[in-house]
Amino acid sequence: MERGVRRGRWNKKAHVGTILVLMCMVIPTLTLVEPSEKQTCPHGDYLTEEGVCCNKCSPGFKLVEKCHAVGQRSNCTLCPVGQYTDQMNFSPNCRRCRRCKTTKHELEISACERYQNTICRCEEGYYKNSIDSETYECRRCRQCGPDEKTKKPCTPEKNTECECKEKYYRINNTCEPCTNCTAECKHHCSTPSSRNTRAPDPTERHIINIIAGAGAVALVVLVLGVLVTYMVTKRSFNKKLVSLSSQSSDISQDLCKQVLITSEEPSNNIGVKTALQSPVSDQEQPSNLPDCIPLEIKSPPPFSVPDLIYMVLDLVPVLQVKQLVRSLGVKDTEIEQAELDYRSCREAHYQMLRVWAERGSRAGGVLPLLPELLDELRKMHLGRAAEELQTKYGIQ
Fold this sequence. Notes:
There is one protein chain. By secondary structure, the chain is α+β, with helices and mostly antiparallel strands. Among the domains are: about 45-95, Ribbon (Tumor Necrosis Factor Receptor, subunit A, domain 2); about 140-190, Tumor Necrosis Factor Receptor, subunit A, domain 2 (Ribbon); about 245-290; about 295-380, Death Domain, Fas. The chain has eleven helices and 14 strands. The protein has helices spanning about 1-35, 190-195, 200-265, 270-275, 295-300, 305-315, 320-325, 330-340, 345-360, 370-380, 385-395, and strands at about 45, 55, 60-65, 75-80, 85, 95, 105-110, 120, 125-130, 135-140, 150, 160-165, 170, 175. The strands form seven sheets. Strands 1-2 form a two-stranded antiparallel ribbon. The protein has a two-stranded antiparallel sheet with strand order 3-4. Strands 5-6 form a two-stranded antiparallel ribbon. Strand 7 and strand 8 form a beta hairpin. Helix 3 (about 200-265) packs across helix 8, helix 6 packs across helix 9 and helix 8 crosses helix 9. The chain is extended and about 105 Å long.
């Protein structure tokens, strides 16, 4: 009886041990069978949305159609004349070749190929001053001053480096002669008499300290007075702007209602013309209309001012819009008025750029002012934005 019980217990233990051994053998196998979490493609290929590894197009080519199954190849074609790609890519578009600007002192040293962009350099007497990673401008090489000598001459890539002549030392960005054997130029002193210069008298030093302290106090008082005057003037000016805007809001609203109601009538063009001419003289331009009237009415096709403004707002960071409009000639009072009239930051920025656009329309159109806009964008290290605007509107 006891022997049978023991035998049964032994058989149960044997079965449990066998199951554990089988589990230890199966679990690693299952782990190996499981697919990897992230699929990787061979070097030079890329993973499509369908999960297929496709080959990239070579430099000088662009993608026409990607592969759709394992073993297929992408369909690539040569870039057209005047365009290029300089890297392995799967882009459907080639990049436009650059044109060297002779008016900006550039010379072409290598023409554009399908696999590389045009290579330009600055002409003799000018050097390349980088604006950002992709744009630069050629500036005239520096001429060393009368008390300087050339340390490194100017090259197309780097400006002239100057240093002071013998027995001169640099102070406040100018070269001064070594006459008093001060700490900055004592190594230039050559005569014993110059080394034995008299130390400043304690009385003279005390007077100098008093004069310097009085000058510092006067400077602080002057700065505080300017700040207080500025704050008071700005506050009173803002109050005047608010009162003026509240007085003119009723007139603008009535005019807007009259224009919008008249524009819905069957004779659309005649109604709008009548509504525009009723409150103003015949000599005034449509740019003097209130803000509620769309710019499409004010600006004739095919050039769309709102499209240009919205494209600029999409390309320029929000924190740099004020800097841009100031550089384009929009006054601080006009900027503050836009911020008072519109709570939304984007609407206020739109109004600031609209002031610039209307000023251009009165001067003969906004399109001639675009080169100025592109130059200001490049000065603000926004070369990519300038390039996109230049491509869209075909400015050379």
